[in-house]
Amino acid sequence: MAQVALVSADPPHKALQDTMSGLLAMDEPRKHIAGMLSGLDIHYDFGKGHPLLGRRMPDLDLETADGPSRVFMLLHDGRPLLLNVGEPDSLAISPWSDRVRQVDARYDGVWELAVLGVVASPQAVLIRPDGHVVWVGEAKDTGLTESLATWFGEAESPR
């Protein structure tokens, strides 16, 4: 509805257009509105925790064992992703390895969300195939196995 008001040509809507043009010339309002229009402001309530939890993962430039990549390139196969940017090989998800891709990577930049701005750098994130983060933590966190089971099924039994 707001977008329709911005394209109307009558004088009250022209004043709204002028105000919005002024706001969109500023970085923060422009980023916030772009996030809303593109759906990047969607936040699922997955409980308390890191600001990334329940939000769309930013598409970071990563350095992996296979070379440079981006987060969304790692999601192209339609599988969940456990992205570890902490100590390599510090997370073990072998009971879910048939369903969840695990990648150790390096990222030295700032973690910035389109609507929230800069957030603290996590050590690891569990990402659904749609790009939303369902777990944020580190190697010693026990919540990872519970999140894996909740989102991607019970652990595979050893044979």
Please tell me about this protein's structure.
By secondary structure, the chain is of the alpha+beta class. It folds into 2 domains: 37 residues, no CATH class; 92 residues, Glutaredoxin. The protein contains 5 helices and 8 strands. A 6-stranded mixed sheet has the order 2-1-4-3-7-8. Strands 5-6 form a two-stranded antiparallel ribbon. A hairpin with a 5-residue loop joins strand 7 and strand 8. The longest helix has 14 residues.
In short:
By secondary structure, the protein is α+β, with helices and mostly antiparallel strands.
Order of helices and strands: HHHEEHEEEEEEH
Shape: elongated
Q: Please report the first level of CATH classification, the CATH class of the largest domain.
A: Alpha Beta
Strand order of the largest sheet: 2-1-4-3-7-8
CATH topology of the largest domain: Glutaredoxin
The CATH architecture of the largest domain can be named as 3-Layer(aba) Sandwich
| Gap between N and C termini | 57 Å
Total separate domains:
2
Rg, alpha carbons: 19 Å
- Number of strand elements: 8
> Which structural class do you get from the secondary structure elements?
alpha+beta
Which runs of at least 5 residues are low in confidence (pLDDT < 50)?
Answer: none
Output the number of helix runs.
5
Strand content: 15-25%
